[in-house]
Amino acid sequence: MYDKLTKITSQKNVMVNEPLRNHTYTKLGGKADFLVTPEAYEEVQQIVKLANAEDIKFTLLGNGSNLIVKDGGIRGIVMNLKQLTTINTDGKTIVAQSGAKIIDVSREALSNKLSGMEFACGIPGSVGGALFMNAGAYGGEIKDVLVSTIVVDKEGDLYSLSAAELDLEYRTSNIPDKGYIVLEATFILKDGHYDEIKAIMDDLTFKRESKQPLEYPSCGSVFKRPPGYFAGKLIQDSNLQGKQIGGAQVSLKHAGFIVNKDNASAKEYIDLIHFVQETVKDKFGVNLEREVKIIGEETNK
């Protein structure tokens, strides 16, 4: 398989038995059999087609910000689009490749005096990941500014889709169900004033840095906001702040975060998520739905 992958992309873009903890924000996860980082859309298509032809498991990693990889790692081919990072602006339109950071798109908007992407200035994910889950913060979300996207489907075919075709809702889209790989997104923003846009971004950045436990590895906000409640408040009122299983801890700074405080295993991190869900359910009768995605295998085989 290594030889076939390196015929599609260069050897430096194919890693064997690569520890995925090196590629996730939580610093968790076992090894990938093959981690591939393609440099072009055509390479993405060819890798998907190769996986289909060889009947080998294929997983898209994204940039690993809203993700937990289990300790057993992932079999088959794992793809990371971190090399697809081009961002271009034309008038009020920004076109960004999926591996670009959504934060960098918000900065590009600022530099071009474009308003509408301020909410994304503190979201750690990639453009592709932002579309995958309709990422949002502080009252804004991707569906507010997205116009269209270019994707590769499960068969390796390339499509251009409108934002409406993605069924974007609160922290969800049809991208995972359809098996799409986002390659590129087009956003349309509004003209604004540099100082006003920067002031909003500075304020949101301050709120994020002062309230979120950025000093430890984490997956970001673990749970979706339950209707009528705030997940962090429910967890805090359940006296769970500081609760620790192994090296994983419910953050003392923000109860909605679970941090990798001391070389946690993925199992410890996931066990703590389940413990929080069970405790909040018992105390308040509220089901906390995970926002973070969990993939991979329990143990190496």
From TrEMBL:
<dbReference type="InterPro" id="IPR011601">
    <property type="entry name" value="MurB_C"/>
</dbReference>
<dbReference type="InterPro" id="IPR006094">
    <property type="entry name" value="Oxid_FAD_bind_N"/>
</dbReference>
<keyword id="KW-0132">Cell division</keyword>
<dbReference type="GO" id="GO:0008762">
    <property type="term" value="F:UDP-N-acetylmuramate dehydrogenase activity"/>
</dbReference>
<protein>
    <recommendedName>
        <fullName>UDP-N-acetylenolpyruvoylglucosamine reductase</fullName>
        <ecNumber>1.3.1.98</ecNumber>
    </recommendedName>
</protein>
<dbReference type="Pfam" id="PF01565">
    <property type="entry name" value="FAD_binding_4"/>
</dbReference>
<comment type="function">
    <text>Cell wall formation.</text>
</comment>
<dbReference type="InterPro" id="IPR036635">
    <property type="entry name" value="MurB_C_sf"/>
</dbReference>
<keyword id="KW-0131">Cell cycle</keyword>
<keyword id="KW-0961">Cell wall biogenesis/degradation</keyword>
<feature type="active site">
    <location>
        <position position="291"/>
    </location>
</feature>
<dbReference type="Pfam" id="PF02873">
    <property type="entry name" value="MurB_C"/>
</dbReference>
<feature type="active site">
    <location>
        <position position="171"/>
    </location>
</feature>
<keyword id="KW-0963">Cytoplasm</keyword>
<dbReference type="InterPro" id="IPR016166">
    <property type="entry name" value="FAD-bd_PCMH"/>
</dbReference>
<dbReference type="InterPro" id="IPR003170">
    <property type="entry name" value="MurB"/>
</dbReference>
<keyword id="KW-0285">Flavoprotein</keyword>
<dbReference type="InterPro" id="IPR036318">
    <property type="entry name" value="FAD-bd_PCMH-like_sf"/>
</dbReference>
<feature type="active site" description="Proton donor">
    <location>
        <position position="221"/>
    </location>
</feature>
<dbReference type="InterPro" id="IPR016169">
    <property type="entry name" value="FAD-bd_PCMH_sub2"/>
</dbReference>
<keyword id="KW-0573">Peptidoglycan synthesis</keyword>
<dbReference type="InterPro" id="IPR016167">
    <property type="entry name" value="FAD-bd_PCMH_sub1"/>
</dbReference>
<keyword id="KW-0560">Oxidoreductase</keyword>
<feature type="domain" description="FAD-binding PCMH-type">
    <location>
        <begin position="28"/>
        <end position="192"/>
    </location>
</feature>
<comment type="pathway">
    <text>Cell wall biogenesis; peptidoglycan biosynthesis.</text>
</comment>
<keyword id="KW-0521">NADP</keyword>
<keyword id="KW-0133">Cell shape</keyword>
<comment type="similarity">
    <text>Belongs to the MurB family.</text>
</comment>
<keyword id="KW-0274">FAD</keyword>
